[in-house]
Amino acid sequence: DAGVIQSPRHEVTEMGQEVTLRCKPISGHNSLFWYRQTMMRGLELLIYFNNNVPIDDSGMPEDRFSAKMPNASFSTLKIQPSEPRDSAVYFCASSTGTRGQPQHFGDGTRLSIL
Amino acid sequence: AQRVTQPEKLLSVFKGAPVELKCNYSYSGSPELFWYVQYSRQRLQLLLRHISRESIKGFTADLNKGETSFHLKKPFAQEEDSAMYYCAPNTGANSKLTFGKGITLSVRP
Fold it and tell me: Which of A29, A34, A89, B61 has CB atoms 3.0–4.6 Å from A94's, for a disulfide?
């Protein structure tokens, strides 16, 4: 398996623009997680899905952030409009969803908002 | 409230020195515990989990329920161990993890 695949790897855009981050989980995994990593806050869970349904979005910072999982093999995290403070590395992870099973992370998207 | 604490932000040691990265948790019940490692500008990777009771890259971690700790240890650090290490308990019915703040391990030659 290719593992969790995220795109793009890097994104540089100007504030106010819409940003869409993409994630393809490992085949057969039914839980998907979006994280944000910054120097100041460390690793934060933004939202997670189980069987394509959002279970906990309490980590989503504000209404500018939205996430979807239209099917078992694809998820998006969208920021609209983007702001400089959104600059971070965004990771996607997937797992089988069973307690005690590890999460597998993608390579992340390094986002810079100018 | 569920909480995981990694009290130190940075640990710097010389090559060959012993390493202990601390992790304490506050949960009722029996959590499943993991250590993840992140090498410079790379993805987080699973290092080990307590249910496996295994040693990976020379690292071990023992769950101490009395002290609610899951410290990561290695007797002789190597330069390639330099990385960020995260402790992460899994307490719910699914695979959601709560990550600690992480600790940077720096191993000097």
Answer: A29
